[in-house]
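Work Package 4 report. The design task specified in the project plan requires that, given a folded chain encoded as structure tokens, an amino acid be chosen for each position. We show below one input record used in the internal validation round.
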């Protein structure tokens, strides 16, 4: 769990960066052989993007890598991955997802598990606090982001 906490904290730093930019506080990092190879945060607001969720941003920032690398990675995300991000995780064969929390939003964890992808739920209080505070303060933006 020690490494999981370290890398999840790196994802939380990404979430805070997104919030400081006026965006939604969700962060993600991709780890290969104990090193972060991609980091990102939700940048839908900042970039006027329809797809730049934290996981998608981290994948984009990892760059074009052989599929064999992704099959050896763990992706950390502060919030349960939505269907789009879960699909990308499946597409690239990332075998493990460490989830900060799923209390404020339950993504497509069922699909990940059914696909043989290991999910580890951390129930991290910092992740929960960031999202609960954001949702209370920005309900319209939050509902837009999750497609409601």
């Amino acid at each position: 769990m020690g490494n999981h906490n370290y890398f999840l904290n790196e994802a939380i730093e990404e979430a805070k960066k997104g919030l400081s930019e006026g965006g939604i506080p969700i962060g993600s990092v991709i780890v290969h052989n104990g090193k972060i190879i991609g980091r990102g945060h939700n940048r839908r607001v900042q970039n006027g993007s329809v797809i730049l969720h934290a996981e998608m941003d981290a994948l984009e920032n990892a760059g074009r890598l052989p599929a064999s690398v992704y099959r050896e990675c763990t992706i950390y995300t502060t919030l349960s991955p939505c269907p789009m991000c879960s699909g990308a995780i499946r597409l690239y064969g990332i075998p493990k997802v460490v989830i900060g929390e799923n209390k404020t939003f339950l993504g497509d964890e069922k699909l990940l598990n059914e696909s043989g992808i290991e999910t580890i739920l951390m129930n991290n209080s910092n992740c929960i606090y960031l999202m609960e505070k954001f949702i209370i303060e920005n309900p319209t933006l939050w509902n837009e982001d999750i497609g409601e």
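The radius of gyration is 14 Å. Validation will be extended to a larger panel in the next phase.
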